[in-house]
Specification:
Oligomer: single chain
Shape: globular
Helix content: 10-25%
Largest sheet: 6 strands, antiparallel
Distance between the termini: 75 Å
Structural class: alpha+beta
Number of helices: 10
Number of domains: 3
């Protein structure tokens, strides 16, 4: 029953976030909260107008005159939209300025962590049960590495795996900034779908790795689900995200459709007969949640045409025969986890980050995924190393990684004696516009 004029006076004292919230109450509040006069005042306070009216006696007269010209020519809600669009553009400009410098070793932006903080980016998972009910998990622990970020969710209220059908991973970014310019935590947020995982047959479709308390199951891309051994209940969810295109995937998609990466535009080369087969650079990290076991860069990788077989190009990074390139991994590999009550460490398991650059230094194939070491069935032919041999493998639609390691009990370390990448010929042909 309150008059509209009185409501408008009250609304005029609200900030942008509060005004948007008020507009969600009912239809009447929505129309009143769309008033161009209120939003022009907010817009003018945040963004200086492009033109200035000189022949004015006071600042108040200038504001009124400019407002009158801008109010009657615009539909209701115009200045609200202009304010929101300009806020989004300002955040994107600030983020793009941060991601412009590139690390010469990884080919990735140097200030990913700062860019994510400037945008207010966070991640959530939505667990959907078989009845259609959604369980949203927002609170997460973050661990930043050179080329990836590890995100862990845990709670005593996580639902049982038996009733779940899917898990969706979203990037969430605030649309507005507060008065200090920082992203507003209480305002409207944009959800961008990054990945969707089907959990109905999780225990049958993936290999389990266990410690004393939990079993963990892995799904591509980069998902680990930990289940309590005694019950079929989720202990924690861990996701590993590579920095390559992470900001785009986390902000430019919609709540239902994933962001599609633009195709690479190849540089035409009709002179080099082995175009696309050489000058690859690899940066590889192997780490747990809180510790790093390997951080190395390998340059000048190539593949001969005779090494192309079964739809894959073979890039040999570390060879069994070349002892000078064997790489040590100090310490015992393990993937640590923690919940509100318990914590543990899954032995012989870690996260592998691979960043393969093409001959121009552009990221060609990138991933961050958990891997597990298993005893190898290969007979030992290493006369310089005495110890058991282990193998680690990873595969997705674009390529495969195969690693052989030897455990040295005397020095308590692993030695990588063989590291080979297999790149899909379809990936190479699409990237370079070639035909292998």
């Amino acid at each position: 029953s309150m008059p509209s004029e009185m409501l408008m006076k009250i609304f005029s004292y609200l900030d942008a976030v509060s005004l948007l919230s008020v507009g969600c109450v009912n239809k009447r509040f929505y129309h009143l909260a769309n008033d161009n006069g209120i939003w022009l005042k907010i817009y003018s306070t945040c963004f200086q107008p492009k033109r200035t009216i000189w022949a004015m006696k006071s600042e108040q007269t200038e504001t009124v005159s400019l407002g009158c010209a801008a109010l009657y020519d615009r539909k209701p809600g115009y200045w609200k939209k202009e304010y929101i669009f300009k806020q989004i553009a300002a955040v994107k400009t600030r983020v793009m300025r941060l991601v412009k410098p590139v690390d010469p070793y990884t080919g990735l932006p140097c200030k990913n962590k700062e860019a994510m903080k400037a945008s207010g980016l966070s991640w959530i998972i939505v667990l959907k049960d078989k009845n259609g009910k959604e369980h949203v998990m927002e609170k997460a622990n973050l661990s930043f590495k050179d080329t990836s970020v590890t995100i862990i969710w845990y709670s005593t209220d996580l639902p049982c795996l038996d009733i779940l059908s899917t898990l969706k991973l979203y990037g969430v970014m605030p649309l507005l900034s507060d008065q200090s310019g920082a992203p507003s935590k209480n305002g409207p947020r944009l959800r961008s779908l990054i990945a969707e995982y089907h959990l109905a047959n999780l225990t049958e479709s993936s290999v389990a790795v266990a410690d004393k308390l939990v079993q963990i199951f892995s799904l591509n891309p980069g998902l680990l689900v930990g289940l309590w051994k005694e019950k079929n209940e989720i202990a924690f969810v861990m996701v590993n995200l590579h920095y390559h295109q992470l900001l785009e995937r986390s902000t430019l998609g919609s709540a239902t459709v994933q962001y599609a990466l633009p195709p690479n535009k190849p540089v035409l080369d009709d002179v080099d007969p082995e175009y696309g087969l050489h000058d690859y650079n690899l940066h590889v990290d192997m780490h747990g949640v809180s510790c790093t076991y390997l951080c190395g860069t390998f340059r000048g990788l190539f593949c001969r045409k005779g090494d192309i077989a079964n739809g894959y190009l073979r890039l040999t990074v570390v060879s069994l025969k070349d002892h000078t390139k064997h790489v040590p991994l100090p310490g015992t590999l393990g993937l640590s986890w923690e919940t509100d009550v318990f914590k543990g460490n899954v032995k012989d398991c870690c996260v592998m980050d691979v960043t393969l650059l093409d001959e121009t230094g552009k990221p060609f194939w990138c991933f961050s995924a958990p891997v597990h070491m298993e005893p190898s069935s290969k007979a030992s032919c290493l006369y310089d190393y005495m110890g058991p041999i282990y193998t680690t493998d990873y595969a997705d639609a674009e390529g495969k990684v195969s690693v052989d390691l030897v455990w040295l009990e005397e020095t308590k370390e692993y030695i990588i004696v063989n590291l080979v990448l297999y790149i899909s010929t379809k990936k190479v042909n699409d990237w370079y516009g070639t035909n292998y």
